[in-house]
Amino acid sequence: MGKRRDGNGTLTVGTDTGEREVPLRIAASYGARSRGLLGVDGVVGALLITPCASVHTFRMRFAIDVAYLDRKFNVLAVRTMRPGRLGLPRLRARHVVESEAGAMEMWGLRPGARIQVSEDA
Predict the structure, then answer these.
(1) C-alpha distances in angstroms, 84 versus 6, 9, 63, 91?
(2) Residues 6+ apart with CB under 8 A from 103
(3) Which helix (H) or strand (E) holds 52?
(4) Alpha carbons 29 and 62: distance in angstroms, whole number
(5) 101, 65 in Cβ contact below 8 A?
(6) For residue 120, is it left (φ>0), alpha (ψ between -120 and 50) or beta?
(7) Residue 1 has pLDDT above 50, yes or no
(8) Is the peptide bond between 23 and the residue preceding it cis, with omega within 30 degrees of 0?
(9) C-alpha to C-alpha distance for 38 and 43, rounded to whole angstroms
(10) How far apart, in whole angstroms, are the C-alpha atoms of residue 48 and residue 69?
């Protein structure tokens, strides 16, 4: 995996019934990682924060699903966080994917799954 930049891409989740593609926003710079989903009322698709091992939901307007990923984009854990919470750091986590609460269950994203990230040119 090369060095990532801020931008857009696609998150591919392999499920029992095939693959599911989800629109993805990538936050790799310090400013984009710090801003994350703050100040927005919702998210279409998901947000990849890289590098990242933990997140918080202070000043957020809605509950989110958080998937912690290792270096090879294997899902370590998936949590739903209400606004005003602090997530515990995951030691092996190198990336975090955030989406609206309930979306990851709908996509079939669970611990042990492997995802693919492709960046738009």
Answers:
(1) 26, 28, 9, 22
(2) 46, 65
(3) none
(4) 23
(5) yes
(6) beta
(7) no
(8) no
(9) 11
(10) 10
Beta-carbon count within 10 A of 39 CB: 9
**Gap between the Cα atoms of 75 and 97, Å rounded:** 10
Kindly report the pTM of this predicted structure.
Answer: 0.91
Nearest 5°: CA angle at 104, between 99 and 109? 130
Residue in 107, 53, 104, 63 with CA at minimum distance from that of residue 84: 63
Containing 80, the helix (H) or strand (E) segment is strand 75-81
CB-CB neighbours of 82 under 10 Å: 11
The pLDDT of 10-31, averaged and rounded, is: 88
Per the CB < 8 A criterion, the answer to whether 33 and 49 are in contact is yes
- Cβ contact 49:43 at 8 Å: no
Coil/strand/helix, residue 33:
helix
Q: Mean of the pLDDT values across residues 117-121?
A: 85
